[in-house]
Amino acid sequence: MNRKELFENIKRKKSFLCVGLDADVKKIPQYLLKEKDPIFTFNKQIIDATADLCVAYKPNLAFYESLGIDGWKAFEKTVKYIKENYSDQFIIADAKRGDIGNTSELYARSFFEHLDIDSVTVAPYMGEDSVKPFLLYPNKWVIVLGLTSNKGSHDFQFTTDSNGERLFEKVLRVSKEWASEDQIMFVVGATQGKLFEDVRRIVPNHFLLVPGVGAQGGSLREVVEYGINSQCGLLVNSSRQIIYAGQDENFAALSREQALKVQEEMKSLLEMKNLI
Amino acid sequence: MNRKELFENIKRKKSFLCVGLDADVKKIPQYLLKEKDPIFTFNKQIIDATADLCVAYKPNLAFYESLGIDGWKAFEKTVKYIKENYSDQFIIADAKRGDIGNTSELYARSFFEHLDIDSVTVAPYMGEDSVKPFLLYPNKWVIVLGLTSNKGSHDFQFTTDSNGERLFEKVLRVSKEWASEDQIMFVVGATQGKLFEDVRRIVPNHFLLVPGVGAQGGSLREVVEYGINSQCGLLVNSSRQIIYAGQDENFAALSREQALKVQEEMKSLLEMKNLI
């Protein structure tokens, strides 16, 4: 999926919501545990209940890997289910990978060839050759960690060099040269508020993947205020607030209600910005 | 395993070699592909042939994940095999993980509880709260990327702040406070040569995991010259040079020959430094 197609989906659905499929066996409705594959059963119901309200799904690999082989099976089944039933969805493997070239090559093979996922999140610390192997796939995306949503983002990402440039700014400036705007996005946490202006000065046209709305406390209105561009350029993720809305048989309907609330706010923000 | 026990193993085996189990189906002896589980069969033979010459094994997760479910099975079987047959080996899951707290928690659960692995490599970009969950396990280790062995290490790790401190130095200085020397190690690439002196100024006592000897061109002698401390403080990894020494039925014997060469050099270096 390219940038234009993604924007078309956003306009059609009046939504730039990404639903984070962070299914934790300890947090999903416990009656599902009697199912053969509780995580997949959970995901399937969440997906069916929200697919018309969002443009992307982001399974975070940690939640699947923590279950070992069963987790990997659930992950692969989830990806396959989305691709077969909702082919307009942009799938993000939230993996935060990054290793020396020959190793990143294998991760790229895993996500892009083996699973045909649209994009993968990567950590920038090891530099260009750790990311390049992911960029060899023309229709696939790399989402580089820029400015993250967590408290620890202040440990290193704000380190200012002798020219007054902060590390997250350098990461954006340097890594945006590694490929076109149709292959690179950046993670910028919703909790960073007004800093979206600084981000947009460096990457005005790129799509940003924005975690941190919802459970982490970021404001959607602020993200749009400082971060939206003429092609929307935002995929705002919500995980816990949507997927854990209920604990009983009606959990998927409650998830839908939460997703709908977010989508309606997104719709009015897109209208306000004259994008739809 | 604590630092003292690790040093005891190093003295007993006269080796600080870590063998990287980066088994790629495209590179292992092709006659193994007719086996039911080629990767595990390969690993098992490499392990049996080298266990008396090394103190650690480092499976890189990418190589296993690239094979999906079969890869995870091979990874788990490999870890289990080492634990059951060579319980003195220090096992490193080379995963380079790092995510927001609740996610890192799940990775920690996966590696330390589910698999009972000794240590995991983590990326520092997201800061303290992305690493803390791994440090809640008293006898387990976190190995933080400090100064990596690849060309891309120059993209961000050498960025100098207004006080003249380079990013990798800040990462070492800040993250060494997150736990004791019995829980944190750092990755420092063998290709960085004399920079080991700068690393040792900040973390004189910590163990360093050193990739980049062998296929990547780093020098073992230089690493020891600038990086060794009174408890050795080095785990030097070699992957490709050892595990792909042969392509026929005698591959494991050839791997042993390569490992033995490295171990003999290590022995003479340990003697030279009066550590054995």
Automatic annotation (TrEMBL), chains A, B:
The gene is pyrF. Keywords: Decarboxylase, Lyase, Pyrimidine biosynthesis. Pathway: Pyrimidine metabolism; UMP biosynthesis via de novo pathway; UMP from orotate: step 2/2. Belongs to the OMP decarboxylase family. Type 2 subfamily. It catalyses: orotidine 5'-phosphate + H(+) = UMP + CO2. GO terms for biological process: 'de novo' pyrimidine nucleobase biosynthetic process; 'de novo' UMP biosynthetic process. It comes from Coprobacter secundus subsp. similis. InterPro entries: Aldolase_TIM, OMPdecase_type-2, OMPdeCOase_dom, RibuloseP-bd_barrel. SUPFAM superfamilies: Ribulose-phoshate binding barrel. Residues 16-255 form the Orotidine 5'-phosphate decarboxylase domain. The active site is at K96 (proton donor). Its EC number is 4.1.1.23. GO terms for molecular function: orotidine-5'-phosphate decarboxylase activity. This is Orotidine 5'-phosphate decarboxylase. It is an enzyme of class 4 (lyase).
